[in-house]
Amino acid sequence: MLSRTADHLFWMARYTERAENTARMLDVNVQTSMLPQSEHDAAQGWRAMLGISELQTAYDRKHATVEARSVVDFMVRDPSNPSSIAACLTEARENARAVRGTLTTEVWEILNQTWLDMQKRLNSGLLENDPSQFFEWVKYRSHLSRGVTLGTMLRDDAVHFIRLGTFLERADNTARILDVKFHGAKDPGDEQAQREFYYWAALLRSVSGFEIYRKVYRDIITPARVAELLMLRADMPRSLLACMDEVVQNLHQVRNDLSRDTERLAGKLHAELQFGRIDDILQAGLHDTLTEFLRRIYELGNRISRDFLVPLAA
User: Fold this and answer.
1) pTM above 0.85, yes or no
2) Are 209 and 229 in contact (CB under 8 A)?
3) pLDDT given at position 1
């Protein structure tokens, strides 16, 4: 496969997944912002999300205060934010358009229609009137894109690069969503007051993990178990370990003469999650662990670009 074609497929998948995960992250903050709390605590929640998304500086250039409506608008459709949902869905469509001959008609039509519908929904006032409904629509379109891709495309290198992009992005975003909640917490292992249940429940719902948590643990929600579920459970679809399972498998399918070190890096990160224990992670510091994971995922993405795709501009 030509490296430029692989590059478009990889980033098409990453942008689609990024839009979904931004919607998930925003949705959990919208839900928790409606719970009883001080204005300071609410602002801190939004500021933490901007910080972990590396968008605090860009936001501060445009806004003097951190308010829910301003943050949502900035992360959904602000043209100055290249990571906004609107920008991600636009980039996904443009990457798909560049390789239409590699995609099935169904995959292209899903991505193109998503972009067209997004314009209508943003202009309709849905985001202002019912942001959660808009975020659900973004998630649904992402699910639809993945399902149609797996249901209609030949399982060749094109699909492997799409899957690589999807699960690298998902691993990155699951770590960020988890860190948003734990970052600044008093102690991840402490039992929280009753109201904290709703925060953890909202977090789990943001990664479609609430029912899974109930099925796996059959007990009250605790921070340590949430972290374990989202990091170390291979049977949790959005966990870090499940994502790395997919990354390692798809890397193996497209391996070339240059990719040995990249496979080794991915395999090491996968093994640390596979054999890790949540008690050890919490003792070492969850925030530090997630920060290091994000650094290594970023390095892995750069290595994949170097070995397979169009090299990053110097």
Assistant:
1) yes
2) yes
3) 61
